[in-house]
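Researcher: Structure prediction, please.
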Amino acid sequence: MNWEEILSSVEKPSRYLGGEANVPQKDPRGIRLRFALAFPDTYEVGMSHLGLQILYAVLNDLPRVSAERVYAPWPDMEQRLREHGIPLSSLESHLPLKDFDIVGFSFQYELSYTNVLNMLDLGGIPIRSKDRGPDDPLVIAGGPSAFNPVPMASFIDAFVIGEGEEAVVEIAAAVVAEKEKTKRREGLLEALAAIPGVYVPALHNPGAVTVRKRVVADLNRWTLPCRPVVPLMKTIHDRISLEIARGCTRGCRFCQAGMVWRPLRERRTDVLERMADGMVNATGYEEISLLSLSSGDFNGIGTLLSTLMDRYYERRIALALPSLRVETLKKELMDAIRRVRKTSFTLAPEAGTQRLRDAINKGNTEQDLLSTAGTVFAAGWRNLKLYFMLGLPTETEADLEGIADLAYKVLGETRNRGQITISLSTFVPKPHTPFQWQRQIGIEETLARQEFFKRRIRHRNLSVKWHDARMSLLEGVLSRGDERAGSLVEQAFRLGCRFDGWSERFRFEWWEEALRKTGLSVDRSLDSRSADDELPWDFVDTGVRKAYLAGEAGKALDGLMTEDCRFGACGDCGACDGREIRIVTNPRETTGPSASGAAELPAGVGSPAQRFEIRFSKRGRARFLSHLEAATALFRAFNRAGIALAYSQGFHPHPKISFACATAVGVESDGEFAEVQLHGSRVEAGEIPARVNPCLPQGLAIEAAEKLPPDGPSRFARIAGFDFQIALPLDLPDASLPSLEDRIAGFLAAGRCEIVREGGGKTSVRDIRPLVERLTLNREEKRIDMTVRFSPAGTVRPADVLSQVLGVAPSDLPRYRIRKTGTFR
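Model: Predicted structure follows.
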């Protein structure tokens, strides 16, 4: 079975296609370093991660380096790869993982560790560093989970601690230089170990070395990605991610990100405007997410929102603030956000009482939350999500009661007409936080708290969701673990654990078996630790002093807060060096529209809409795009081409584009039809293919466009049928052709032919004989030609004719290449 036949037999084949818009094209003859950026989760999760897009752009901006992407295959794809001995490969060139010079993993979440080992194994790379030879790639890792590198140190050759933009350039240069001198693996590791912020387990003794994290001092110098890769399928965060700031000064004592990514650095507004323009024009996205640990804290957030909304309102590009503190969500922000569409709001009080919010240094009040909720619902929203944590240090039953009371009070602000979702997660005491010494509650304690809320919160407008207590337990074991946690990960991988962060794939009983086999004590792993204990991650210097963390832990027990150092006294945490590394805030405090003016709008925005019918093709691997994926690619390509789509009205506007009958996934087509409404009289039918096609992913192309009367009926109602060609497998023996001819003759002679269809939990029986107008076998071309009729009741799929009329086994269907060659009216 070849690669494309495999794609026909797996769920969501668009995960593995590649060929997206904005993928760089590099001449392989000039490449000196091949760098695989590996994300240990699915394509739709990994493509939502801004950090990976940044590193991809940074590396591909280097003249002699080629960066390619690889994501964790879903279990059905893993099974096919193992069955047929096909190694895990990159999306861009389909180069096996073992043939890269460097494979770099992004560690975002501890429960993806088994996927890391699985990807190495599938890629033909020994999973343990000590087993790799001179021909194996270097395996490096970075990301938030790398701030405790010890659990994965047996599998990773080098860890990048901290921010990667500058470090990855230095790594690429060092490896290129060393490879030109020697291929000695020891020499390559020594070159990496000499780079600041890089930890090499084989060469660095954690007890004798301190590894200081890397920090990008000035974000304004780093504006990549200018042209993010546009995914083929709907991703978790299907939008532009515009990073407005990095770091935080709030000092929430449970928050690892707020500690390890210090100090706060904001980008200038003029830089953000240029970045937004570039990404909007390069991607065609319909939404911009203003990304930071606390978007509402950005200096001049109102000005930035107003400016971007003025620039993009006519294009119906929405703005979202995904990370908001309760007290920073003001009415003017909501008014700006809802001008195009109502993006969702999530607020994180974290604790139910003021006493506990003070202990965790959250810094907001119950009145802040109630006032914000009232403003949200008064502005027209009807849904709000509230995040709380269970098991925070010093938590009592009164704090749990406080969560329930708050939920009902917020509901009261909606006059019982809103829908409130209370999301409860179990607190995990992460490394490098003031709570790193605290105990984590176990499964039984978490379940008891969850039962409390089942009894306490009973209202149809209040829904309660919680994170799986077993997942939280494992996250705590791994995040604060030592090398024994690595043995646990390997054992779980050997037992079959994959995608442990996905509830439908999580197999806790396998982890329990791995715990038994390794002898790792869960109770000891989750227990509190003394401030005098040597912690596995102590050799990692995040800039924030351990003494500062201990002081914050003491203040938490005393219920004392630490003020935000942007507005008060410096807390002397150590993150700033007093020279280059320091707090940087956006200096712009003006109000009103941007001095740089509005960006040029696509041709004809504001003019009456025009109707066009377009005919487009889906060829090659693009045939594996679903109907929705192809539609999304088309209207984003129109946006990128600067051709303004007309939009519907209301809070959730949609582009006015409709499609004729959808072709099944895996079927090629020479002629799909869509009707699109465009703004403006300056767009001519003849220019549409030339402008839009360069913006489409590989395999999609507009073949022709025809202008339609503005108020005429849809021409789709006149579609009468389709022509198909089905290429037989090349290795199909000629001796089997007479049997096919007999089956075809019998079918054509029959007055009735019923087939059985399964779907949606139902079984249906249809007579397809009236729907098949022509069915012939072309022996010379080794193909079947077929014409089917289309009626209000539907049509018949070529795959059904192959399987239920011609007797092709379902497992063999991927070997028959189906192509729609014509649509007749």
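Model: The first helix runs from residue 3 to 7.
Researcher: Thanks, that helps.
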